[in-house]
Amino acid sequence: MAGPIVDLGISSFGFAYGEDRDVASAAGDYVANPERVINWGFRTFHRAADDVQATDLAAEAARQALDRAGVSADALDLVVLATSDMPEYSYWDGAAALARELKIERTQTLLLNEGCGGGVHGLYYVASTLATQPDADTALLVAVNRVSEFHRNRMNTINAVLSDAAVAVVLRRDHPANRWLATEQFTEPEHCDLLRVDFGGAVNPVPPQGWSTVDAPGGHERIREQFGGDPRTLRRFLETRYERLLEVIDGACGRAGLGRDDITHLIYLNDSATSIAAVAEPLGIPLARTNADLAPDHGHMGAADQLVSLGVRLENGDVAPGDVVALCGISTGRWCATLIRA
């Protein structure tokens, strides 16, 4: 049977951002060709202070969401943390660290390290838990991105400016608004190494002497190497990216018993307006009903993009009760989509 496996909805949102920085003014600190970055169309990005880490941002967003929902942390049945950048420490559980910040114990926690789609399919893991545990009623999902500038150049990894931010949502069983309908995800592992950092792990624990993100090859150069300088193969890879997004959205629709025509809003990664339009147009969704106007003022916040944009749209009254919002994203090799009915 098509339809939700469990009735739950988002009852509140919480947000935490690094300090606002102007892209045009800061680009020269990160790359030798700042015009290339400026031409992507991003105006502002968020950069956390050096002493503010992912756990700090996640805890700030979580406390705000809990306060707005009128829920105490010790009432939570599940805490899920989705991260999309380098963890603060090795051999360390960021979800447990978040629970400690919230001063709770003996609560289920789950850590997702699945890249930029973690906030989208994290909703599925919450739904799965509530479906299999009838005594669980309330969950907290936090998606956070805090760029480690030692490991990544925030303006030379992908064609977007990477930002530091967190978003938290409180989900409650039988909540009547912002209801989770379905999630679809799949993995195509061929290019799973495309954006990896080659050191810091067990294979290469230490970077080469003199290595720096300021002059290290960027993500776009790695993509060219991956495809051997063959523009036709690269073009086909980029086209497939959008085809797979439509496929995963259709899969979510099938699980929810809906069709493309039922979707009223689309929220993708904080990418360029051209990229967002490439997903929205085949669905018949105008750019005004996407996150295209929000992305330039936030930059790419990793796993936090989609839930931040959904929360802002709801708070601004841009999404009407009953509207169906498709949240979708790509991690390296992973496609995902979640449908929410406002």
From TrEMBL:
Outline the extent of the Beta-ketoacyl-[acyl-carrier-protein] synthase III N-terminal domain: 112-187
Q: Which GO terms describe its molecular function?
A: 3-oxoacyl-[acyl-carrier-protein] synthase activity; beta-ketoacyl-acyl-carrier-protein synthase III activity
Q: Check the UniProt entry and state the signal peptide residues, or none.
A: none
InterPro entries, alphabetized: ACP_syn_III_C (IPR013747), ACP_syn_III_N (IPR013751), Thiolase-like (IPR016039)
Record protein name field: 3-oxoacyl-[acyl-carrier-protein] synthase-3
* Enzyme Commission (EC) number: 2.3.1.180
**Which top EC class applies here?**
transferase
Origin organism is: Streptosporangium becharense
Q: Which residues form the Beta-ketoacyl-[acyl-carrier-protein] synthase III C-terminal domain?
A: 255-340
Pfam short name (any one): ACP_syn_III
- Identify the keywords attached in UniProt to this record, alphabetized: Acyltransferase, Transferase
GO BP terms: fatty acid biosynthetic process; secondary metabolite biosynthetic process
Note the Gene3D superfamilies from the entry: 3.40.47.10
Q: What domain of life?
A: Bacteria
